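Provenance and format

Records in this collection were gathered into a single text stream. Each protein contributes a sequence line and a token line. The two records reproduced below are adjacent in the stream.
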Amino acid sequence: MSQLHSPALNTAFKAARRAGDNTLRAANNLLEFKPDSKAFNDFAAEIRSHAAHTITEILREAYPDHRIISADNGGELTGKGHEWLIAPLEGESDYLHGSAHYAVAIALRHKGILQDALVFSPERNELYTASRGKGAWLNGRRLRVSARIEAANALVAAGFDRENDSLLNGLLTRTAGVRCEGAAVLDFCAVAAGRRDGLVRFNLHPCQAAAGALLVQEAGGIVTDAEGNEHWLDKGEAFAANPKILAQLLHIAAQHA
């Protein structure tokens, strides 16, 4: 069964594949520059900009009337019409350090409702897709969130800053472990695929969260903000898991607020 359930996903795949392949090839050229040098930083910025341009060009050619929003272009969500949320190089720091933990993420909203999502991991050649009501998929395989029911046995993907030290300590003592990696969207993918049992993330741009969140939802999980509400995209924070684990994660968060 094809995992590209809509024309929008086919277009997103074309854009993500081209941008991701270009980014993968460019990684070899980073070795020519001294880390932290101006030339290195300029080239890194050029890679991200080129990926964004590639995606935008393909999306606009297919859908000239749609809005395209990224962290770099300063666009804001309106909840009106069609809106593409793109993260051309999610996990940029990992990419610049030679890690495979980065991805291209593209999501489509219509009148404020997420409809389609695609995440492409170039190094691992993993393609995650989801369409509303049609499930979540990884390279043609249907995804389901973890069936684990006890937080004490759960492995949680997380992203924190110093303001969340108390919650981090709470999770470390009441779960099986916490994993903090760079690319937020790949943490959502890991939850959708059952590789992680839950997710706790703060300081998210909507473009970092949208595609991954729909994947989790279509894989049978729930995404909320720290208070258990549906404002996660606006507030820039997300808790994601199956219903039983999510309830326990939210309880831990409430105790460490």
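Adjacent record:
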Amino acid sequence: MKRFAIVFAGLALASASVVNFPNMKRVEELDIFWKQLDPQLQALRPSENQRIVNGQEARPNQFPYQALVLSFFEDGNSGLCGGTILTPNFVMTAAHCVLIGTLATHGTAVLGAHNRQVAEATQQRFNFDQVNVHPSYIAALLRNDIATVRLSVPAVFNEFVQPIDIPALSDTRTFAGMTGIISGFGRTSDETGSPASEVVMYTSNPILTNADCAASWNAVLVGAQNICLSGAGGRSVCNGDSGGPLAIHENGRSLQVGISSMVHVDGCASGMPSVFVRVSHYLQWIADNSDVVLRN
């Protein structure tokens, strides 16, 4: 019988040198996060920090849809996650990036960043105070782990800031066997004390069938609402990549098929599949909680 085995893929430490955003913490360092999990999962609290791993640095505008989501909570906790640009007004991320016991009171989205620790001319920074979390989000199991945030003013699209496509309503593909691309500012090493990446990193692996993924994980945790990426070669998302994209590249464009949600307790580089929210499962919810126009 497979044990529950989960580590949050999320909220990475933003060091004090991050411009205007000191003292950001990984969610794994927050007691409040672990208290909300199922008791079977609380016992799996890691004793060491874990980690996109075995990837490479992206070009400055290679992933113009990549966003940083910085959330602030009433209890003084704050954290850094990934996200994706849907429209000039909305960014999509994981629910666990904006709801840890209580909903984030406010936050900041950074678009167009390559090096998160530098105030680059390409960056656009926006406050957000409208946060939409899926009403059936179950924190204990990271079920329905999806959210959107509305930017204070519209983003300006250019070569460094662009929206990502999401599947059409008629797109019934599972995407299994296709090459999935992951990107983010998460940890790049499983070594204790290793910081989150300063620059956008990326890697790729085949997308798995849900049956193969559940065989490695647990059918309770991996369902129709999920999509998984092979962990072959130790390539994976890690802490700080939560909320970021799993994408495929076709017809000269990027299509987001997943939202980074969780990695295995054995570690980001363990070879275990990483688990994402399946975007096509939530198309109507995304449209209802943003101003994105769905394609037929």
